[in-house]
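Deliverable D4.2, example record:
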Amino acid sequence: MDKSLQAQIETYLSHLDRLIHRGRQVRDALTAEPSNASTIAAARVWQADCGVTINQLSGGSKAHWLARSFSEAFLMRSESGHAVEGVAPEKIVQRLLGVLEQAVASLRRKDDGPVISTSPGAVPRRFEFVHNRELQPIVEQAYTDGRRALERADYELALRTSCGILEAIVTDALEHQGLRALAASGAPAGKIADWSFEARLTVAEKTGLIRGGCARLPAVARTYRDRQEREPEVKVSERDARRAGQVLHVVMRDLDPGR
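Output generated by the structure prediction step:
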């Protein structure tokens, strides 16, 4: 097996192991206190992280067996095959854990190699929608760095990286539209590169380039540029870092509807 592919597989295995560990903690917490708001929120964040990973492993294809298994995990059925309403959240988590374990087993296959699309040529580039070709490899590397920062619990770096990518791709979309086309939306005067982060997001929403996903950005993310100067005492939580990453993925889908 190609060394680069093997390294990629090892990275995925390590990430899946952490997801499984978190999932078991979430499952146990839900079993103990199924109505606890914090536990439910943690379960949703974990499920979103699972979704991102499954999408990467399945090469972005909803038809891939792993992507289908992930979707089916949310659709519980009775013995007759009909959908069941009101399924206990911990059972959903348990089924998702089973999907993650299937992914691990597939990555560890030694016969014909893993059946998951992990090779660089099989996984579509995440930022093909970026118009500035010179920017594409920069944000792709930043995306990888941000995921690694999140995995090692460097939430400050993870959040700043997600916000930096978000600002870069929104700016690229705005510049592609052009100032003249943006004027009708009440865009600020001057170059787009001189606008504030908040202004770029607002104009992008008003012009329909993106939808309302940025409303979920935590306050600490909106001031990510000058955090070191103005808010050095404010710590970035895991929740804030993960939410910034989730908003980034929503905006990526907005800018590339075919994802």
